[in-house]
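Homework-ish question, so no full write-ups if that breaks the rules, but can someone show me the predicted structure for this set?
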Amino acid sequence: MKTLALFTIFVLIFGTVSTSLVNDAYAQKDPNILLHIATQADKQILNQLDRAYGDSVPSDIQALYEKGHTAVESLESSLPDDMEQARENFLTAMKSFKQITRMISEPITEARLTTSSDVSDRDLKSELNRLHKYFQSLKTVSDNHNTGIDFSEIKELFAQAREQINSGEIETATETIQQLESLIDTTKNNIREHSSNSASDRIIEFALKQLNKIKDILDKATSVDPDMPELEEANSIIQEIETLISEDNISDVKKKFGELNKIVKMIKKSIR
Amino acid sequence: MNQQIVPIHRKESLGEDGMLFVRTDSIFDTMVKIPLLVASMIIVAAVMPIQSSFSSPRVLDLIIYPDGSTHVSTEIDVDPLATDYELDLFGSTIDNFVAVGENGFLLTTDVIGNSALIETFGSSAITVEYDIHDLVSKQGRVWTFSLDAPSDFTLLLPKNSAIVGMTKLPINMEIINDQDQLTLSSGDTEIDYLFSTITNPIIPVDPTPQSDYLMYATIGGVVAAAVTGAIIIRAKQKTVKPIQDQQLTQTIQKNETIDAETIFKLKPDIREDDKEIVKFISDNGGQALESELRKKFLQPRTTMWRAVKRLERTGIIEIQKKDLQNLVKLRKNMEEEE
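A: Not a homework solution, just the prediction itself:
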């Protein structure tokens, strides 16, 4: 019996701990990926050194590069048999190359990118691509719910903006992007309005289900401590919610649910 | 049988031979109740996956745009009994936020600072997409992506970008539309990349190759025109041209490697140290590994690489890849310098 119990404990401990072990395990699908990345980085660094220093590479950087390159060579020789060594070599090489890139970069103050407000740094093509992805997400939602919203104007504006960017008309392209942003926002609201009926049904369905569950909890709490002050408050909110549902007042249902959930949490704690 | 419980810290009396005896058969029962322990472990084991499934994304895909902004796309399992879900975002500069429920409903959201409150109302899984400007920073020419990821994720790097440093081992890498897509594990990740000046993935190419090729083509054209003109004029003058001169004024196309002296006549302006390299390659049968050249001339890697690139630019040698090493070969077809 004791052996069985100990075995069960062992299995449970292993089962619990093993989930955290999985995250630390690195299983490269193709070990050559490491070599590919490291070799490419090596070439880039060599190129950067040539551009930055020409014939006079500083000795500390030269030493770092030699270290990185040697690690790449060792990485190649350790593959595919010695994966542990290969991983170590990869990290050594990439660490050295990383150090070099930091050293050869111009000493410009590091700054997080806030491109959307900084016009000088703006990459309109990226901005347009991001906006297009956003539009695609909304269009998918719209298509799923057959909203019948016409997207032809937006599509036309996207094509126009692309042409303007390609022909270097930056100011016009910026204006078109602004137009697009505003139009997509309007479309988002339209989609929301169109799907609000089904969304309301969904929320009502959810609310009724939840109310039944909460009522069960309150019944249980009443049997434990009928004088609990939160019980009366909870019952009162439930009545309010039921009235709001009958009036189809969804936004207030949401608010009241928030209040009710807080009280139910307190009740749950008390009866535990 | 009346079993006596003996505290484990109490020393037993020593036997005749001085040995210490401790009762071990009831220690476990004394310390803990086994059923209680098993029950606790079962609860812990059952709760852990639930906790992690509601807090970590099922799918997490990131796309970095050329301007450093990042598109985040994630699928998260949420509690279907909860009215809302608070999602921790990877930063505070958020654009184009969309949250969709499992039935394709657009969910109401409120983005405040680093978090988004999403009204899930019965959804058990949600899809969230947004753009963020906090994950990539730039210093000089180097762009750095950094993220403490809550789960494994994929990262699509911009076109023509090249990784020059990373702090983590990738799980996988794929090429999608000429872009590198890495699969990385959860935790802190930092990746340095820059926009590549190397266009050929196998052989390193000079940062301005097109302009150089254009220059050589122009020079070649001028030389060809001059050679043609000279031949016509000389033919008219009916003079016999010495064989050696003809070799120097015409484009040489031989099957075998040109000897060093001919190269120096065709390219009189090459540096003295480069001439030594050419001589060595010529004596070595017309080809040598770059590593052999380094050993021979005791030059650092970068210096030798530059010399080899110089010779490649002047059209004397060509570089081929051999087992990931640079094989430097004297060109069989060479044009005279203008």
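Now go work out the reasoning yourself. Hint: Chain A touches chain B through 98 residues (CB under 8 Å).
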